[in-house]
Specification:
Largest sheet: none
Strand content: under 5%
Number of strands: 0
Helix content: over 70%
Structural class: mainly alpha
Radius of gyration: 21 Å
Low-confidence stretches: none
């Protein structure tokens, strides 16, 4: 198909379609957070098993995202977008008719495979079609969706589950994605020229096995420490082989060489820590409110709603602040806010004020927005146009994989003590450590930049 010039009208169409579809995908990612206790009871599975509906989703996003850079180069943007949305629709249909946990998990993993491709496609496209002087604002919009989608998911889910069965979490999403597919088919122009590259399927297999073993080890530790260590070590060895293979390939699945850029390496790490705190906190609060405070899924969703709204508003503003002043003060301010918000979370009890928990979560989400958008923008500051697709794929892959690590780790930690309250406190202390590591990494970046 002939390549279309990028006009202002074209940018608007592409931006609206991509942001809307990415929002639906990311909201679907966390809709299961408030639904887990309901599904656990309905399908008679353990909480550790049920949480794979969220962890597995995040894991698959992390596994398939590396493919996105090759797909973006090899096919036209229309083919990639329509194929991705079509795959998401297939997973959603399967979720609508799921009658057992295995089918439901399969539906979620198919959705996740499409979601991982869509997120990187959206970021790469937005970077490519806008001038560099608008990068902070554009990635601010992108990070708004990346943050607001997962943040609003549990609230939307709680509202739906108050009046409808859990299958409606799929049924209501289906017509929206069908509409996106129709609009994309008729309105999305082709603005990219594909290149004749060969996808290295051995790298795909190695990445899949290594990531699955590494992340699966976190759950295995709870049941068998020896098996957990064996899975972790094997997974890390395979991932090392994957990285070494990428360094040798002419057209690698992931151009890991871009990690030699301090801006990409350190600011990606800052974003990873922020995302781990976001997903981890978002997972643990509904477990606390539903299992300790005895609050239903709808009310638990409402507790998360103010934080989601605050996160969206802050993210929409912070991108413009970054364009004018850089990343220093937004990220420092965000880290401080996240630490202040930790005080009520690490001291929760059966008698904790729900209003205080709501406020603490909202404050932490504001802080997260202050960090996430500047970190994402700064990570791409030294990348060339040709490296953007690999940068978005690598950034998204690591963020999603470590997000899955965070959710699994916190759920496992919360279940170790005999008291769930004590376990949740311990998991919240872990998020405090993650915030401190985030600030230390950013301080390291500022030190290198000054020298």
């Amino acid at each position: 198909m002939k390549e279309t010039a990028i006009t202002p009208q074209t940018r608007k169409v592409v931006t609206l379609v991509l942001l809307f579809s990415t929002f639906i995908s990311l909201a679907s990612q966390t809709m299961m957070v408030t639904a887990l206790p309901v599904i656990q009871h309905d399908l008679t599975v353990s909480m550790n098993t049920a949480q794979w509906l969220t962890t597995g989703y995040t894991l698959i996003i992390g596994i398939v995202t590396p493919l996105s850079s090759n797909m973006y180069d090899k096919f036209t943007n229309r083919h990639v977008f329509l194929g991705t949305i079509g795959t998401f629709i297939v997973g959603t249909v399967l979720g609508c008719i799921a009658t057992n946990f295995a089918t439901l998990l399969a539906a979620r993993l198919i959705q996740a495979a499409a979601g991982g491709m869509l997120m990187s496609f959206q970021m790469t496209t937005m970077i490519s079609i806008y001038p560099i002087e608008k990068r902070g604002s554009i990635l601010g919009l992108s990070s708004l969706i990346i943050s607001a989608g997962p943040a609003l998911g549990p609230s939307l889910s709680g509202l739906i589950l108050e009046v409808l069965p859990w299958r409606w979490l799929f049924i209501l999403v289906l017509p929206l994605m069908v509409l996106v597919f129709i609009i994309g088919y008729w309105k999305l122009p082709n603005f990219a020229t594909p290149r004749n590259i060969k996808i290295d399927y051995l790298s795909v297999i190695i990445s899949l096995i290594g990531s699955a073993l590494t992340l699966g080890s976190l759950t295995a530790f709870e049941r068998n420490v020896g098996a957990g260590f064996a899975m972790l070590i094997t997974g890390l060895v395979i991932i090392t082989l994957f990285v070494r293979r990428q360094l040798r390939l002419v057209n690698p699945m992931l151009k890991v060489q871009i990690f030699s850029y301090p801006s990409f390496r350190l600011m990606t790490l800052v974003g990873i820590f922020a995302f781990m705190v976001l997903l981890g906190t978002e997972q643990m609060i509904p477990i606390f409110t539903e299992k300790i405070s005895g609050i239903g899924s709808f009310a638990s969703g409402l507790i998360l709603l103010p934080g989601a709204i605050c996160n969206a508003i802050a993210a929409s503003i912070v991108g413009r602040i970054y364009d004018q002043y850089g990343p220093k003060w937004p990220i420092i301010t965000g880290g401080i806010l996240m630490l202040i918000a930790s005080v009520p979370l690490v001291t929760v009890s059966r008698h904790s004020s729900i209003l205080l928990i709501t406020f603490a979560y909202a404050l932490r989400m504001i802080g997260n927005a202050c960090v996430f958008s500047p970190a994402l923008s700064e990570a791409f500051s030294d990348l060339s146009q040709a490296e953007n697709s690999h940068g978005t794929a690598l950034n998204n892959t690591l963020r999603q994989v470590f997000g899955a690590v965070s959710v699994t780790m916190l759920v496992v930690i919360s279940g170790i003590p005999s008291s769930l309250v004590t376990g949740i406190r311990a998991s919240m202390w872990v998020t405090v450590i993650l915030v401190l590591l985030m600030l230390f990494t950013f301080a390291r970046y500022l030190s290198l930049k000054k020298n």
